[in-house]
Structure formats: structure tokens, C-alpha cells
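User: Sequence recovery, please. Input:
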């Protein structure tokens, strides 16, 4: 499938947030959060100026056929535009799961990616709470609109993941949630009203690997192994500003080696079509080469050499989150939002959901087979019982028949005797008269 040509890599693409997602969406407006508001305001200003310069038309005008000149024109060339209009009208849904231990910069990154403030009222648990803590699922939704295109974004967070002393079951919560969403979709799809199904399936799982350590930990492998056939996993090295270039490269290599050794296949980038232009091919190559993305997140806008940048201020300088030399943040955002969001959804539908659906159907048919077998056995045994009941009735009937027949014989004998007696009586009377 041909990838849609991505827009030029944006410095900032601020969406407008509407309140459709309840508290979470309202959190995006963030009137109280001064920092987030500032971020949004500055980012809005940057983006508006940029998009005004290079904004492509939202709805390409369909070609009007001129029947005199264009005799060969049938009109189906406008089909892509028709599909485009319909999809834009319907809006889009995307669900992103974020998994990783607490403090790795997950919330900061999500806010930086979608220019919102999804975690305004968040409370961080203390040490005692964390010892006993179990992994929970926390879902936040925000409605984003950008150039007339509406996106309902759901972020599924897993607070408590890896926080407890015993983290063995952390992955269970994630797999259960993913399966539940598939099951719900399967039930909705098999129901009568299939028109307004809400798609809550997880389209992508951003798994955060810590920058410390030498490679993937047992706990990371445990989760990835259990999830990689259910969801598109994209690995992210959090807080990558803790590492220098060589360290980032080495860590990436070791992670990829670990995945290969454990036969784990994460989300596979689709092959780039040969007719794509060179810029797109180059961008695709760079994205693939950057995996796992080493990211830095920040919700602060700083001024560097007269330019506003999203970054982290340190005593020795500024880490510019959007600078490709400092982090893969822009690559991750381009991949996740601008170039591969639809492919992540398609892979969820065509690969992961199909697997789940096939398993469900096979379980249902096995159950149906077992039920049929049971019914058959039951009906055989009840037929045998019926036969036994019939033969018993027959036996009784035969007995009765025999009794009736014997009584009829007796009756016939008695009638015969009576007849004889009567004849003898008659003869006796006749002889008396003769005398
Ligand atoms: P979460 O618990 O994984 O959601 O982590 P948070 O986003 O709440 O971040 C925890 C702390 O790390 C906060 O103090 C952030 O300011 C800081 N932080 C977030 N992202 C980064 C990053 O990329 N690099 C560094 N050095 N610190 C970060």
C-alpha cells in the first residue's frame, strides 16, 4: 500500500483540544496549568505561522468533467477524494498504550507529543505505596482537531508497572486489557448494530526502556514476549539525554540483539513503495534506522539564539527535544502521527485482531463441537431409554393380549358347554312328550 506523503517534518504542530474526552480532554485546555498553557500558546503561535506558509488544500477539488472535451473521462478518479471526505467527516480514533516503570518520562513525552496536558492532576505514589502497588490501567481521552481533521486519542497508561517488589504480574494487566478490548470489539462486531462500533483496541504500545542498564531486563523481555503477538510494540529509550551518542548507539544495538536472540518481532515497518519520492524514501530509511527511538521529553519552551525551542535547560546548556542531533523525538512523532498511524491501525486490524478473532472462532467451534457431541450422546442414551420403555410397554401389552385371548377361549368353551346343555335339555323334553 502506498504511504501517504508526509508533510514536511514540523517543528510544532499544535492541535486544538476540545472537551469531548471529559476530564482528560478538558485537561488539554489546561487553564490552570500555567506551564502547559504557555507551551500551548507559544507552540500555537509557531505552528500557525508555519502552517499558513505551506498549507495544502484540505479537500482537493474534484475535477469537473467536461463532456465535450473530455470524452474519455468517466469520473471514478474522484473516488480517493470521496473516501477522503467521508473519512474526514467520520473522524479518526487512535489508542496508544504507554508502558514502563514510573519516572521514565512517559507522561512528559505524551504531553510533548500531543501538545496537551493529560496528567494535570496526577499524584505520584510514595515508596511504601509502591512496594505493594499493583499495576492499574488508567485511560485518558482527548479530542484533537487539526486542519479540520478530528482525532479521538486515547492514552492508556499503566501506573504501577514495575513499581512493586514482585513485578511478575505486571504484564498480565496489560495483556488482559488488550484482550478485553479485542473481545469487546468481537462482540460488537457480531451484534446486530454494527454501524457505530467504538474502536477501543490498542493500536500501538510504546514500551519505555530505561537509559541505565546495559540492555533489556528480564522484566522487559517478559512483557514484550507476551505482548508482541497482540499489539504493535514500539520500543522507546526514555530520558535519552542521560546518554551520549556512543552510549545510545551501543544500547540500541544490544536491545536489537536481545530481541533477535529471543525471537521477538516488534512492529514491522512496511516496505517503502518504489514509486515514492526520494525524500520520503530517505525519511523512511532514517525512521527504520532509529529504532528503538531514544527520546527526550519536555513541556518547557525555551529561547535559544532567538528561537523558541522545546527543551531541557541544564547548567551546561539546553537539550533541544526537537533537534535530531539530541534525540529521536521528532522521528517518533513523525512515525506515530504523520506517517504510520494508519498502518498501525491496519496492522492491528489485519494481523493482531485477526489472530484473536481466529482463536475466538476456533474456540467457539470447538465448544460447539463438544456441545454437539454431548447432545448426540444424550440423545443416543435417551433413545436407548425410549427403546427400553417401548419394549416394556410392548411386553405388558402382549401379556394383556394373551390374557384377553385366554379369556376369550374360556368364554367360547363356556358358550359351547351351554349350547350342549341346552341341546340335551331339548332332547330330554322331546322324549317326555313322545311318551
Ligand atoms: P513517568 O512517571 O514515567 O510518567 O515520568 P514523568 O513524565 O512524570 O517524569 C518524571 C521526571 O523525569 C520528571 O521530573 C520529568 O521532568 C523528568 N523527565 C521527563 N522526561 C525527561 C527526559 O527526557 N530527560 C530527563 N532527564 N528527565 C525527564
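Assistant: Recovered sequence (435 residues):
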Amino acid at each position: 500500500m502506498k504511504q501517504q506523503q508526509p508533510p514536511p517534518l514540523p517543528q510544532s504542530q499544535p492541535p486544538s483540544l476540545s472537551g469531548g474526552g471529559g476530564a482528560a480532554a478538558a485537561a488539554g485546555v489546561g487553564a490552570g496549568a500555567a506551564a502547559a498553557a504557555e507551551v500551548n500558546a507559544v507552540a500555537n503561535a509557531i505552528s500557525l505561522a508555519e502552517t499558513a506558509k505551506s498549507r495544502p488544500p484540505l479537500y482537493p477539488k474534484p475535477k469537473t468533467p467536461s463532456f465535450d472535451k473530455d470524452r474519455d473521462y468517466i469520473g471514478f478518479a474522484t473516488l480517493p477524494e470521496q473516501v477522503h471526505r467521508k473519512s474526514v467527516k467520520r473522524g479518526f480514533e487512535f489508542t496508544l498504550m504507554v508502558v514502563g516503570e514510573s519516572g521514565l518520562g512517559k507522561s512528559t513525552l505524551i504531553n510533548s507529543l500531543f501538545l496537551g496536558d493529560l496528567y494535570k492532576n496526577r499524584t505520584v505514589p510514595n515508596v511504601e505505596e509502591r512496594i505493594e502497588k499493583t499495576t492499574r490501567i488508567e485511560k485518558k481521552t482527548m479530542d484533537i482537531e487539526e486542519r479540520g481533521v478530528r482525532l479521538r486519542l486515547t492514552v492508556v497508561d499503566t501506573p504501577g508497572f514495575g513499581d512493586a517488589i514482585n513485578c511478575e504480574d505486571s504484564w498480565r494487566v496489560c495483556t488482559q486489557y488488550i484482550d478485553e478490548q479485542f473481545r469487546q470489539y468481537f462482540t460488537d462486531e457480531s451484534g446486530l448494530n454494527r454501524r457505530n462500533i467504538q474502536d477501543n483496541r490498542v493500536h500501538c504500545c510504546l514500551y519505555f526502556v530505561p537509559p541505565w542498564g546495559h540492555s533489556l531486563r528480564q522484566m522487559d523481555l517478559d512483557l514484550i514476549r507476551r505482548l508482541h503477538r497482540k499489539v504493535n510494540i514500539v520500543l522507546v529509550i526514555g530520558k535519552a539525554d542521560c546518554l551520549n551518542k556512543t552510549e545510545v548507539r551501543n544500547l540500541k544495538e544490544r536491545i536489537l540483539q536481545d530481541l533477535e536472540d529471543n525471537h521477538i518481532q516488534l512492529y514491522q515497518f512496511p516496505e517503502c513503495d518504489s514509486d515514492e519520492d526520494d525524500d520520503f524514501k530517505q525519511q523512511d530509511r532514517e525512521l527504520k534506522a532509529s529504532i528503538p527511538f531514544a527520546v527526550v521529553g519536555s513541556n518547557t519552551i525555551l529561547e535559544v539564539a532567538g528561537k523558541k525551542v522545546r527543551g531541557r535547560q541544564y547548567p551546561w546548556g539546553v537539550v533541544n527535544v526537537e533537534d535530531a542531533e539530541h534525540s529521536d523525538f521528532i522521528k517518533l512523532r513523525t512515525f506515530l502521527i504523520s506517517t504510520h498511524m494508519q498502518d498501525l491501525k491496519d496492522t492491528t486490524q489485519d494481523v493482531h485482531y485477526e489472530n484473536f478473532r481466529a482463536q475466538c472462532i476456533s474456540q467457539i467451534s470447538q465448544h460447539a463441537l463438544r456441545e454437539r457431541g454431548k447432545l448426540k450422546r444424550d440423545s443416543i442414551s435417551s433413545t436407548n431409554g425410549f427403546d427400553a420403555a417401548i419394549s416394556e410397554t410392548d411386553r405388558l401389552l402382549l401379556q394383556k393380549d394373551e390374557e384377553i385371548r385366554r379369556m376369550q377361549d374360556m368364554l367360547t368353551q363356556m358358550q359351547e358347554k351351554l349350547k350342549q346343555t341346552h341341546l340335551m335339555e331339548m332332547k330330554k323334553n322331546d322324549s317326555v312328550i313322545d311318551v
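The radius of gyration is 39 Å.
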